[in-house]
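Work package 3, deliverable 3.1, input record:
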Amino acid sequence: MPDLLLELRSEEIPARMQKKAAGDLRQLVTDALVDAGLTYEGAREYWTPRRLTLDLRGLTARSSDVREERKGPRTDAPEKAIAGFLRGAGLASVEEATVRSDPKKGDFYVAVIEKPGRAAEEVIAEAMPGIIRNFPWPKSMRWGEASAKPGALRWVRPLQSILCTFGPETEEPEVIAFEVDGIIAGNVTYGHRFHAPEAISVRRFGDYVEKLEKAKVVLDAERRKEIIRTDARNLAFAQGLELVEDEGLLDEVSGLVEWPVVLMGEFEEAYLAIPAEVIRLTIKENQKCFVLRPQGEADALANRFILTANIEASDGGAVIAHGNGKVVRARLSDALHFWKTDQANLPDLETLRSSAQRLDLDLAKPLDQRMAKLDALKVTFHAKLGTQGARVERIRRTAGELLSLLGSAQMDFDAIAGEVDRAALLAKADLTTEVVGEFPELQGLMGRKYALLQSEDDAVAAAIEEHYKPQGPSDDAPTAPVSIVVALADKLDMLVSFWSIDEKPTGSKDPYALRRAALGVVRLTLENDLRLPLKKAGVDADLLAFFHDRLKVYLRDKGARHDLIDAVISPEADDLLMIVKRVEALGALLDTEDGANLLTGARRAANILAAEEKKKTRISDTVDAALLSEEAEKVLLDAIVLAENNAADAVAREDFTAAMTALGALRGPVDRFFDDVLVNAEDEAVRANRLALLNRIRTSTQTVADFSRISG
Amino acid sequence: MTVHAGELPPHMQPTRSFQGLILALHNYWADYGCVVLQPYDMEVGAGTFHPATTLRSLGPRPWNAAYVQPSRRPTDGRYGENPNRLQHYYQYQVLLKPSPPDLQDLYLGSLKAIGIDPLLHDIRFVEDDWESPTLGAWGLGWECWCDGMEVSQFTYFQQVCGIECSPVAGELTYGLERLAMYVQGVDNVYDLNFNGRENGKVTYGDVFLQAEQEYSRHNFEFADTSVLLRHFDDAEAECRALLAVGAADDENSVHKCVLPAYDQCIKASHVFNLLDARGVISVTERQSYILRVRNLSKMCGEAYLLTDAGGFDSRL
């Protein structure tokens, strides 16, 4: 069966778009082939900075003939209906339709549509121009003379050539000739821009890959990555160093070269005074280079870096390494300047005076100055929510309120009011530092460093960094009390504020990462065993329901049964820790034999009651002890009263395990009741009283959970 | 024909002389067929503001031009103390309309002409989408890297003055000081050899250091902001007035006063940059100033399409 080789060669495609584009190409081409009734055995896409390639194997040479019959209206139907049928079936006149008879329907028209099979070449040639013209690039452009005409071809960067060959392995493949805006598909490609600029004729994928390799193009991005990774590690090892791995950077770099050549550059040791994260980001973001560390070091970096060139330079790469070193040095010199500037006084301190006074900032300290600047600049946080300065004031206030809500019973929250206030005040100050301006992802981390440099308390400095946490599922939630309070305040302020202006996440849209914020609150409270009455912290019913959803997602990820969560959550439950304790206690109860049997009994009671309620039987809330005749029902009532009291007491003490144990004691009496007592007694009053007793089973279990929501 | 670097006397070599570098680029692009223009005689932030780029990139007429443009970025002033940053520097600007199919190769040829061998140096095209909010312009292209250093900007103009480019022009902008520092192997811009002589050597510092110091003072400290604010308003008003008075009498006649109006747009843009450097424009105001300049450039661009050079044919 024939194979298809397709290459779209262009000027340099942005690295971040290559992989998806190659995948889109495979999808679009295979969809078009399948839609046309063709099948294929396998398809794989490749990409380099200058080409998207599709290797499609085992394509059927021809689609099969298709015969389709379409039923039409009766022969005596109104003319309009018949005309519509003919149009729909693509028939020119009624003569082209066949007439069939049916005993029930009478004579009616049938259109027999025969679609002869088509050659794969024809299908491809027809589909390709549309695929190329409508290619889903995130951003595309026009170019050259053709760009003046309406409907000019758009591509991510100018499209230079199209290669399209087709044929079985045993025969000479042929070129599938199609044309898009003046570019005619052929069997020619070009190798490396500088090493092999000559034209290369290609037959099929096998010789294509080989010839490209000879022309210094490694087609497979995975192989380019592997070359870079291995060479970088080896080069580092030889110098007693270790590569600081960065998969994202590796992906990007592999999309910047067709022929990776790994080299090492260096910079002055003096720059190692800059924080390692700043060095890493400076070298990564600006120069797309990897940093190195001495073998066995955890944090400290070496004054070397790894770069990936695209050529085998005539001098072995000395000039390239030297040149890159120069640029890295200039960048690090800027970074050093930023790092130092952030530790010095701001000019125009006078203009910050009023902000400093209002916020109680000490203008003798650099980070305080940065906070005063954030306030004085009146940078908008959100049009409806005011400035960053106003936001910091809210976070401070919320942090203070949280301290009293969390109370001294938990951790030593009343002893840290000063630290919490200071940390909340300085938490966002680093947003106006030069380093964070350059690398926004260092927010928090830089604040901590600058705080320590101006001798802030360790707990305050830590909280400045950690108040953004947890950022994602793999990020730890803070455990230090000051950090916890500021982190909670930051997130609750986000949530309450955005809820107040009705900016809630919808579907996949969550531009302010409010889901993450709510999940952060969930994790901060649960993982630190903290009780926080959310309603008192300003959370309204709608936001509380949002928290419940986040909590369910969180617990489900932890393996909790979601039916148990539903069974214990009520719309008013605003203490997340208590909800979880209930779930745990309920789970533990159901794991015991007593619990499982109690659940069965309670269900049986509920089913009987449900059947009665369907019949509109009135069921009393109270049991008349005088009407109880059998031992088993007397024992049950006593047991219910006792269990209910014990459970209620335990719930009041928030001892859910004890509450569950109390309920578990019902198991024996309930079982015995169902064994010994006939609910459907002949005496109407006795029967009603026994139904009331069943009802009590239901209501007593509800003190801890809604058993009807627990699934079998 | 192109003069090969090897045939030049040492003091004319692009790798030894700043002016030699400029002359080599002039030679290369003149040989290609560009009109080699002189700098525009107004203060601009980038070579793109030259009417030979902004306005000539509009309309259907072919246009190939190359020129050096002194560019002013008031906020980049460092009182002559930073070895890489200048508030006044040179851009070498090439505009080819329509963009030729071999524009990348032409660019690489120009690098060879100034002594950069692509089998010795690592030349890369790294994604960079260009946008000028004040000119209402955007395009797609790359930063061109030489051994990790950005030495040029390469853009296919898609829109200028808010108008779709038809056809698309290709723009090349070389950072001349950076390129010269690289090929001369100099770490401080002020150490660049300007005239290529070893005896009687004139450095970049000899030519520009004092100016950098004085203009930094001007930009950050001395420029009279109330005068500048007035200049901005005046330039804006004058631009609008000139466009109004030069407007075509009827649909068969051309606009009669676009270029002088566009000068006022350039002036407003530069005054805005100065005000920005003086720190008197708040974050919210900033946006509105940018918008005001963009409106001027848009009106100029639209009027330019109604002129002969803009492709308007009054006989139609």
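Residues 283-304 of chain B form the longest helix (22 residues).
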